[in-house]
Amino acid sequence: MKAFLKYREIWLAAAIIALIGLISTRFPAFADPGNLRQVFNDTSILMILAFGQMVVILTRSIDLSMASNLCFTGMVVAMLNAAHPAIPIPLLIVIALLVGLVLGAINGLLVWRLNIPSIVVTLGTLTIYRGATFVLSGGAWVNADKMSPDFIGFQRAAFFGIPVLSWIAILVIALFFVLMTRTALGRSIYAIGVNPTASVYTGIDVGRTKFIVFCISGMIGGLAGYLWISRYVIASVEVANGYELNIIAACVIGGISIAGGIGSVGGAVLGALFLGIISNALPVINISPFWQMAISGSAIILAVVLNARGERQQGRIILRKVEAVT
Amino acid sequence: MTDIPAPRHIPDRLDKPLRSAIFSWESLLVVVAAAIFAINSFASPYFLDPYSLSDLTFNFTEKGLIAFAMALLIISGEIDLSVAAIIALASTMMGMAVQAGAGTPELVAIGILVGLGCGAFNGLLVTRLGLPSIVVTIGTMSLFRGIAFIILGDQAYKGYPESFAFFGQGYVWWVVSFELVLFLVAAVVYWFLLHRTSFGRRVFAIGNNPVAAQFSGVRVGRIKFILFCLTGLMSGIASVLITSRLGSTRPSIAQGYELEVITMVVLGGVSILGGAGSIVGVVLAAFIMGLVTFGLGLLNVPGIVMSIFIGLLLIIVIALPIVWRRLRGNS
């Protein structure tokens, strides 16, 4: 039981349940399963993005360009759909994944081949990708009336009472869970974050692995691009402006250490849900939505204070530091 | 008994032959700046005019002021993403003070003090609690701007006194604006602080090896705290300038400035990993960014496309020396 309580995910889950309880004292219908399903659906995109960011942060890197990638890829699929409504949605999703992959690979190559710190590379591509969206669209918007009914309806179709968007999120959770806990790549990602030097000696190609994680975050950005545009049914240059910091916030609240090596899929899910619940709850309990920003800011600071305490003992330690062994 | 090797002569400072001066980062920036200046004057007939050149300076002075303090902070191995949010909060507080009937001196004091207070808050969290600054300042970025949103919502503060407009719109002499003078004075002050005082050497020492610095008697925590305060202070000053220039306050004021300030610092040759950089480089980078945005503006290029050039400039200027070194190394 004690070992069980050591996991921060448990504490975070408890905090979320307490939060839901608190909200339902003022608005009982909030804790309704139907409403919670709605909250999960609303949070799906943030959650998916948080996994992409998580694998990058685990390797001691950061990807600030995810929201710009989302914006660019979203514009590409929206324009494709407007010009050729006949393209089936699954194919569009594959295109979104590929476009995102290319943008992520550019980040990854600059980090891997030129050894430029990832924060510099993605700070640059953050502005480049968003600017490229403007060049691509000529500043025009793609509105709902130009999108095909399938484009908009795909993620809203329900299977077993749950919309496709939520199913996609569940699928991505499962994929990342397998990746992080059952594959060599997942272990390499953790190992690089804990101790990059030791990783080299154990035969992990650190540069190549970083390239791969940027490809993963790029593909996630691309996927989220389609999902975002078809959810909010408008594609413009302003889409998800500044959202990169929300993604990082979800990771930080979920207990993923910015210093690398510590964090889990469960944590990312909970971190995103925490932010999603707050943004869904504020309007129903009659607090001005303008409070949201300050609340998530305080949550980030609180989370990082709490995480810093546990970080010294916890985490998946695959390669131990020398000091710890002796 | 074996021979004791003769003690090696260790020079006080490394030789700086002309060659290394020519190939330094600053000279590269001078070349880039000159090239952009030349391209601009060919591309637009309106560019080489004292009044347009004066307008140009408004593009970078406010961000440049913050960039000096940010340069020191990044050299010491920390970062502050909350600077734009500090501008928003300080501006909101000044707006509230105007509603309460404050005069120009009080407004300036409030702006600067709020900035300083926010910087101190960041500094306390990072140095006292030992938290990573990138995460702390992402948090305070939401918090500070969030408070501005709570106070203002979708409203705006207006009605700043006329004498307050001088800071962001006034000219000291002919086309030389108050903002430009302040920028140049700050450049000299920060150059002196970083390159000519023991404080500056300690900043470099911390950035290169915080543990070694600590064992050499450098008060790492205190110096980092001072640097966060300085960054907050400069953001407060920038807030006074922007608020004065715009004459109104919205909670979305200066949105995204933090990334432009950091781009300026990195473009100026400051290592994002800490331990290296110069104020001259940051001044040049500020000029370059001002030149690019202003030149493209004269050609009616929209702001969002300009950002592509800034982003490309950042990556190319950082990548070029690396590629260059590698090509020379291989041959």
Key descriptive features of the protein:
heterodimer, A: 326 residues, mainly alpha, two-stranded antiparallel ribbon, 73% helix, 1% strand, B: 331 residues, ABC transporter involved in vitamin B12 uptake, BtuC, 15 helices, 2 strands
The assigned CATH architecture of chain B is Orthogonal Bundle
Helix content of chain B: over 70%
Task: Tell me the strand order in the biggest sheet of chain A.
Answer: 1-2
CATH homology superfamily name of chain B? ABC transporter involved in vitamin B12 uptake, BtuC
In the CATH scheme, the class of chain B would be Mainly Alpha
User: What portion of residues of chain A is helical?
Assistant: over 70%
Which stretches of chain B are low in confidence, meaning pLDDT under 50 for 5 or more residues running?
A: none
Structural class of chain A: mainly alpha
| C-alpha geometry of chain A | globular
Beta content of chain A: under 5%
The whole-number mean of residue pLDDT values of chain A reads: 86
Strand order of the largest sheet of chain B: 1-2
Order of helices and strands of chain B: HHHHHHHHEEHHHHHHH
- Counting DSSP H or I runs of 4 or more residues, the number of helices of chain A is 15
- From the alpha carbons, calculate the radius of gyration of chain A and give it in angstroms: 20 Å
Largest interface: A-B, 46 and 48 residues
* Silhouette of chain B: globular
The whole-number mean of residue pLDDT values of chain B reads: 88
Give the oligomer, counting copies of the same chain as homo and different chains as hetero: heterodimer
